[in-house]
Write a structure and sequence with these properties.
Length: about 325
């Protein structure tokens, strides 16, 4: 089979397609014939040498979609549509950047849909991260206000759409004024141009601040996101688009506004129940959940795909078709 093999960190050009053996599979694992996979920021971190738990050589990829090729334990039928994500994919063992991938049963969700493979390939990790951030990290409730910091990222787009579907009023940020209209088309109530002072803009609309905020940019803007949030509101730190992950000399009383809660989210596929994932997929298929796929690449274009991801040139999800 063909697989993208990463021998060590470097620029996008270190991603090389090779002929390798089809992996074996044992009980408790599932071999999937991969049709497509989405690109994720964590795969850039791995490739760039920013991941602390990386091992090389490795086939990257924390998600994939396709059909079951073999499930020795009988948990899934051969030919069944499935998605796979997380659980160590692309870090602890070879991941989804390949024609076949072998993953633990716990990382696999069944799905039934007529969506094309590229669209389905955009959904697993994007929806898992957005759903988990909103419901586990923030505990959102209908009628609340939500700020999405980093709103044109794939997770930012998904979070805004899922929050609207759940009955929230959504604020979402972009550093590019040319992307405001796109956020409006996605249903965002208050698109904001991020000039570093989002809190002031939020409080011009809701003087007490938002009920909840999803931080997808990084620790460099986290203080401003905290200032955007009301007393007893919650900020969830999920993303690191800026590659700034830590807070030097963190002093909680000086850093956190009075009464504002700070949580984090870095969950697994189990945070997105199969029934919820199927519901989201059905809503996408019905045109009621406007998830955005920015661009679809051929397998042979994996280097260019990573260049686009690293440059932040996408609004929404980047997807690679394997076949």
């Amino acid at each position: 089979m063909r697989a993208v093999v990463l021998d060590g960190p470097g620029g996008p050009e270190v991603l090389r397609i090779r002929e390798v053996g089809v992996p074996g599979v044992e009980a408790g694992w599932v071999r999937i014939r991969v049709e497509a996979f989405g690109l994720n920021r964590s795969e850039y971190h791995l490739r760039a040498g920013l991941a602390t738990n990386a091992r090389f050589p490795i086939v990257p990829g924390i998600e994939a979609v396709g059909t079951v090729d073999l499930a020795p334990g009988g948990e899934f039928a051969v030919g069944q549509q499935v998605v796979a994500m997380m659980g160590g994919m692309g870090r602890e063992f070879d991941g989804g950047y390949a024609e076949y991938t072998v993953v633990p049963v716990s990382s696999v969700l069944p799905v039934q849909t007529d969506l094309d493979w590229a669209t389905l390939g955009a959904l697993p990790e994007m929806l898992q991260t957005a759903h988990g951030s909103l419901h586990t990290g923030l505990g959102i409730q209908p009628g609340q206000t939500l700020l999405v910091r980093g709103g044109t990222s794939s997770v930012g787009v998904a979070a805004a759409v899922l929050a609207k579907e759940f009955g929230l009023t959504v604020f979402s940020t972009t550093r590019n004024p040319g992307r405001v209209e796109m956020l409006q088309r996605l249903g965002v109530d208050h698109p904001l141009v991020d000039d570093g002072n989002v809190a002031e803009k939020v409080r011009e609309i809701v003087p007490e601040g938002v009920d909840a905020a999803l931080e997808l940019v990084g620790t460099n803007v986290l203080p401003d996101t905290l200032r955007s949030t009301k007393v007893h509101g919650t900020v969830c730190f999920t993303g690191m688009l800026s590659d700034q992950w830590t807070i030097p000399d963190f002093y909680p009383i000086g850093y956190l506004p009075n009464g504002v809660r700070l949580t984090g989210y870095g969950g697994e596929s189990s945070d997105l129940p199969a029934a919820d994932f199927q519901r989201y997929v059905d809503l996408v298929a019905e045109g009621k959940l406007p998830i955005r796929v920015d661009r679809v690449f051929a397998f042979e274009e994996i280097v260019e795909a990573h260049r686009v991801m690293e440059a932040g040139g996408a609004v929404g999800k980047l997807v690679v078709r394997v076949r």
